[in-house]
TrEMBL record:
The lineage of its organism: Bacteria, Bacillati, Actinomycetota, Actinomycetes, Kitasatosporales. Residues 455-476, 700-738 are annotated as: Disordered. Signal peptide: none annotated. This is Trypsin-like peptidase domain-containing protein. Pfam families: Trypsin_2, VMAP-C. Coiled coil: none annotated. It comes from the Bacteria. Residues 499-719 form the vWA-MoxR associated protein C-terminal domain.
């Protein structure tokens, strides 16, 4: 399909936000008279500071254009009351943003047109982003020449990071514009920032325009974040449904059998979607068209029909007068039309608010507990993302409770230990939604009791510790607390002596927090000093000390990070994290191609043994062939010539190997035996501690050649707890310089 055809709906909804000297950003038409953009774009258009938090004056008019519909015409607009979400540093509150440092929250604005949009302009359809799908974006002018292609890398709440893979170079000026999924013909988010190469930014010297070349990463605000920030914005449109619409229409006719019930159902939907009700001119087809064209419109239609029938019957309770089979037929048809949505806007919003207060369960562990055999790569930044995944799954004959409700029950059980009131709220939400979904409450109670029994068994002192699953939870039914982590994303800038970096603190059961950004060259002593400060102030090392993880590119895996130490000036003396903490290196370049092997090898760690690559395997082709022959092996020992380590490490990373142990200077058969001895009898999770003890022995008894720990490196890279992407350069908002 030609790009003009693929992007026709994007072009019909694309909006340029104009300043005194031309476009300053973009926006997207979301309703007949509403435009969505970024708050910092509005600030720039009005000549204010990008991070100003006060709403624009009511008389402040913005100039908009629909360049791909009517290039000559401008339209005036004002910020809609209740539609101003200025940039803020934290998820809660109004703390100001520090320019150029961190990802921020909010940064959204809804604009209401003073007149009508030009003929040919149409509101854009929206869908949830897919971490496997490529998207496109346009610069502020809307010129198709500026189209860039990007692929999602990771969800780093509140943003999604996307690697640019094609098109012109990225520069300031894309903010507020829609991220368009050509394959699904839908907007999946708004551009909010770019991460520019510092050299390219200096070369630009403040000039605007899209001509600059820059290896930027594009950052977007996802659809769930938009809906969370703007709860009262009318439901967004979705692509026209192609399957099941006639079934839904026939089923609705079997449930709403009188003109009065149809009119009442339309009044409900009108109030929810913000359009005028027709009453006399309403029919079943109009109700279906309204529902299938809006975000969560089909669940809203089912709720409207249920409410309409509630005056005369109890469809979920089985009372006399229940529609029975017609009602179940309506539910089945709704799942065909809208297979990924079963919650109304309010139900989804209420649950997301409750989950934001939960501190015990982690997203990966929750998904693994509910869907233990799910092998798809998921971009999960919070518990609400798990709910979005689980909405698409139906109950089974053996388990009548759908995975969505099972997940909420498990989270409620975890929170019972510390927050009884929150647990009661989650249980009340589950009861309300189960009734509306037609799930027997007795089945929910039975699952709740079974989960509580498994939870109690997992916590019992006399019971052996349950096996750890691949996502950080346990196979015994408990969503166990995660090990505290300090994660350093390291980018060498001056050989192996100078670095830029950022540090994430990942406390047990909480979400990761970016706590240090160092975008100027720093020596290793500075890195270690920042790690010590983070350990002291940002994580709770009780009862378990933190795991210190360095994320580096494959070519830097050989850095002697475990030998780094701070200056002696501190009152506690020099700090050596490789001696006092479990220190490992991980890679920044795991790809989709190696993801399946990565999970397969990780799942088989306890039983698959290991491979030892001596001189016979020093050729990287031979090593890769052995990895292909043993697709379950996740642990490798290197004891060949250290000059060969770099190539072999890259082969291991590409093949999805979980753990690699090697000595940086010694090699030979005896080294292989010694390193294998370190791993012998050690469960996979205990490898970092075993290596730490070897390093301590080498330091405690210097000069003894049998102690290999002095130059011991460990790549330990499980498929969980990966932080947001490396961004050592300053954040640059995607807005033209003025």
């Amino acid at each position: 399909m030609h790009a003009d055809v693929e992007d026709a709906a994007l072009h019909a909804a694309f909006v340029s936000v104009l300043g005194d000297r031309g476009p300053v950003g973009a926006g997207v038409l979301v309703a007949d008279d509403l435009v969505l953009t970024c708050a910092h774009v509005v600030n720039s258009a009005l000549g204010r500071g990008q991070f100003d938090q006060a709403g624009p004056p009511r008389d402040a008019l913005l100039r908009l254009a629909f360049p791909l519909v009517d290039r000559e015409r401008e339209v005036s607009a004002r910020v809609e009351p209740g539609g101003w979400r200025p940039p803020r540093a934290d998820a809660i509150g109004r703390a100001p943003v520090v320019p150029g440092r961190l990802a921020h929250h909010g940064d959204l604005a809804v604009l209401r047109l003073e007149g009508s949009a030009p003929p040919g302009a149409e509101p854009a359809p929206f869908q949830l982003h897919d971490c496997e799908r490529e998207v496109v974006a346009l610069w502020a002018s809307g010129n198709p020449v500026t189209t860039i292609r990007a692929r999602p890398r990771v969800v780093a709440a509140p943003w999604v990071a996307l690697d640019v893979v094609g098109g012109v170079g990225v520069s300031a000026g894309y903010s507020g514009g829609p991220l368009w999924d050509r394959a699904r013909q839908a907007v999946v988010g708004l551009v909010v920032a770019v991460h520019e190469d510092a050299q390219a930014a200096r070369a630009r010297g403040g000039a605007g325009g899209h001509q600059d070349r820059s290896p930027a990463v594009v950052y977007g605000i996802s659809l769930p974040a938009i809906e969370s920030e703007l709860p009262r914005m009318p439901p967004l449109r979705v692509p026209a449904a192609r399957r099941g619409v006639q079934q839904l229409l026939a089923a609705l006719e079997g449930v709403l059998t009188t003109p009065a019930s149809v009119a009442q159902c339309e009044r409900w939907l009108a109030a929810r979607f913000g359009f005028p009700a027709r009453d006399l001119g309403t029919d079943h087809a109009r109700l279906v068209r309204l529902a299938v064209g809006s975000r969560r419109g089909v669940p809203e239609l089912i709720e409207a029909a249920r409410t309409t029938l509630a005056r005369h019957s109890a469809p979920d309770g089985g009372a006399a007068g229940s529609p029975g089979e017609p009602w179940e037929r309506l539910r089945r048809a709704a799942r065909i039309v809208s297979p990924t949505e079963c919650l109304t806007l309010d139900q989804r919003r209420d649950l997301a608010g409750l989950l934001a207060r939960c501190r015990q369960a982690t997203p990966d562990a929750l998904l693994a507990a509910v869907l233990p055999y799910d092998a798809e790569p998921r971009a999960l930044s919070g518990l609400a993302d798990v709910i979005d995944v689980l909405e698409a799954y139906e109950p089974t004959d053996r388990q009548p409770v759908p995975p969505l409700l099972r997940a909420v029950v498990l989270v409620a059980g975890e929170e019972r230990q510390t927050a009884d009131q929150l647990t009661e709220d989650l249980q009340a939400w589950t009861e309300r939604v189960a009734r509306r979904m037609g799930v027997p409450w007795a089945a929910v109670c039975q699952f709740q009791a079974d989960a509580a029994d498994r939870h109690a068994a997992a916590r019992a002192p006399s019971a052996p510790p349950p096996p750890v699953d691949g996502a950080g939870g346990t196979a015994g039914g408990r969503l166990g607390r995660a090990v505290p982590r300090v994660q350093i994303e390291l980018l060498p800038t001056g050989g192996s002596t100078l670095f830029t970096y950022q540090i994430w603190a990942w406390d047990a059961g909480a979400q990761p927090r970016l706590v240090v950004v160092q975008d100027r060259d720093a020596a290793s002593t500075r890195v270690v000093e920042d790690i010590r400060r983070v350990l002291r102030t940002e994580v709770r090392e009780d009862p378990e000390t933190a795991l210190v993880e360095f994320f580096v590119a494959p070519e830097w895996l050989g850095l002697a990070i475990d030998t780094w130490e701070s200056d002696e000036g501190d009152e506690g003396g020099a700090f050596v994290p490789g001696l006092t903490r479990r220190l490992v290196v991980r890679t920044t370049t795991r790809t989709r191609e190696c993801y399946a092997g990565w999970k397969r090898r990780t799942a088989a760690l306890a039983s698959a043994g290991r491979l030892v690559f001596g001189e016979r395997y020093a050729d990287h082709k031979v090593a890769r062939a052995n990895l292909e022959v043993r697709p379950d092996v996740g642990t490798v020992v290197l004891c060949c010539d250290p000059a060969r380590h770099g190539q072999l490490l890259r082969q291991c990373v590409q093949a999805g190997v979980h753990t690699v142990l090697w000595h940086r200077t010694d090699h030979g058969e005896q080294v292989g035996l010694d390193l294998s001895g370190v791993l012998e009898g050690t469960e996979p999770r205990g490898v970092p501690e075993a290596v730490r003890l070897e390093r301590a022995k080498a330091m405690a008894e210097p000069g003894i050649p049998t102690h290999r720990g002095g130059q011991l490196s460990l790549l330990h890279d499980p498929p969980d707890h990966r932080p947001p992407p490396l961004a050592p350069e300053p954040w640059v908002l995607a807005e033209p310089a003025s």
